[in-house]
Amino acid sequence: MLEKKVVEIQKQQLQDNLVISFGGNSTKGNKEENQDAFALKISEGLDLELKGHAAVIADGLSSANCAAQASQMSVCHFIEEYLATPETWSVKKSAAKVISSLNKWLYSRQLIADEKGLSEQWFSTFSAVVLKGDRGHIFHVGDCQIVKINSDGYQELTKDHATASGTLTRALGADSHIEVDYKSTSLAPQDILMLSCDGVHHFVQPKQIKQIIKTNENLEKASEIICQLASTQGSNDNLTCLLVKVEQLPKQALSQLVFTRLQQVIPPALKLGSKLDHYEILDVLQQTSRSHVYLAKDLLNENLVAIKIPSVNFIDDTDYLTSFIKEGWIGNKINHPAIMKIYSRLETSKFLYHVCEYVEGETLAIWMRENPNPPLMKVRDILDQLIKILRVLQRQDILHCDIKGDNFIIDSHGRIKLIDFGSSYAANIKDISTPEASGGSTFNQGTLNFSAPELFYGQDNSHKSELYSLAVLIYQMLTNHLPYKEINQLDEVAKQYSLWRYKPIATHRKDLPRFMDRVMSKALAANPANRYDHYSEFLAEFNASDIADNSSVANIPLIERDPVKFWKSVSGILLLVLLCTLLIK
Question: Is the dihedral of CA 330, 335, 336, 341 positive or negative?
Answer without folding.
Answer: positive
